[in-house]
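Bump. Still looking for Glutathione synthetase structure tokens.
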Amino acid sequence: MSAQGSPLSSWPPTLSDAQLASITLLATTYALSHGLVYLPVETVQPPAPISTIHAPLALFPSPFPRRLFQLAQRLQNTYNVLYARVATDDDFLDRVMGAVEGAGRVDEFTGQLWRRWQKVRDEGIVQPLHLGLFRSDYMLHSPGNGEPTSLKQVEFNTISSSFGTLSERSADLHRYLRKSTGYFGVSPYLTADNFPPNRTTAGLAEGLSEAHKAYGVPGACILFVVQDGERNVFDQRWLEYELLETHSIHVVRQSLTQLGQTAQVDPTTRVLRVASSSGPPVEISTVYFRAGYTPTDYPTAAQYDTRYALERSRAIQCPSIALQLAGGKKVQEVLTHPGVLEGFLCDVARWGEQALPQAAADELRASWMEMWGLDEDVDALGSGGAVQREGSGVRRARERAGALVLKPQREGGGNNVYKEAIPPFLDSLAVEERAAWIAMELIAVPEGMGSYLVRAGGGTDGAVRADVVSEVGIFGWALFGGADRAVREKEVGWLVRTKGKDSNEGGVAAGFSVLDSILLV
Ligand code: ADP
Ligand code: MG
Ligand code: MG
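Sorry for the wait, here they are.
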């Protein structure tokens, strides 16, 4: 198929106002009837929800090259193994966190978690297993210099990877719109074969249930640690319903603040029990964090102490503090240093028969943009010295500011510094804080992509046509940490978030982007 007329050069097809109105009606009605929803913004939250609004959504799926989608799915298996191995390499994480935190305790949040993890290790680990529910995020990269469009990683999430179950419903929505209207015959690409399946809910719940089984007490519960005032509760509840329906596992939902009152760790057995309002304390097999990734989840020392209490218990943590730290931006950058990735994946002396082929590492490396640390000491971590040759990380960041994003050790969106904002930001950044930041080349997203977007709750706007950028996430789980060093893992589904082109950040919950799905082309 030539680029001319391909959905990759121009999208979406044009709809008449009447067609658009009719599709919007079908879409929001479907979303509301299938749980593709959020809690509404309430000034006073009722004790139990009384209404919902539909999630922000796109009316058409976004075109994505089939070969790059398959590549992203394949890479997930490698990433699952990689991050399992990173999270169980204490020396490596201590080295990276030591550099981030530095002598001056520059990143207080990371330091708080790291210190508690060290304390747990000093006391002796009673639960070697870790569970990861991961999401690796990518964008299409079209530098426009004759290079073919490629797949580039934005980041790898190891904590609170959200929108798995709602993205399944978003994919179902687009499949329904196609089936119900044929999208009015406006594009020959809107055929069933081009709508890939997305069974993320079953896949993520399977990861949780595997951890639960490994814990070995069938009557135990899984604890969901959630934020107070969370509006994205249905994305979490769908996992809860799947655990009950398919695996007969009960879930307890509490915030870190509540758990400060309700969680007890037996001093001898380290069994974690949580009291709930509806009955006696229950034993917890697995702790699944949908909170705890941002400093605001720890308003006082008590929440950090609760995290520590959970971590030192016998319950399997999803993620452990180690795995959360492994998902930091600084680790992502250090992995790009020469030989580091290869050491984790392919080193036969280290991994024996579990070593992966060099090709797996090569394929993964090819999905990375260039990254470096803002601190000049980045070479101390064992890189080949590219940064040193070209001068300090900061100088290079100033020189290339227009093509860069700077990222701190934070999750959840809204933390990055882009392009022309970089030089003044660097002027204001204390020298000792540089260690907590990485610079990353900006991915050059393809031109010509548009979509019809419907904001959360719709309002009176209906659908709005916008030039857009899409970010694809691939979900996976990994259960690891046993003495045999085996990693049980699976790739389990995907997510597409689409945002207006002029918005730098892409958080759905933050209101900048919509839930979308993939049209394979
Ligand atoms: P967070 O953990 O806060 O989600 P991300 O690394 O995902 O941090 O950055 C947030 C958003 O910034 C991404 O969703 C994406 O829209 C944008 N972004 C991040 N890195 C890049 C990059 N290298 N090129 C283009 N956009 C990026
Ligand atoms: Mg993130
Ligand atoms: Mg992100």
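Residues 65 and 521 are 5 Å apart (CA to CA).

Edit: fixed formatting.
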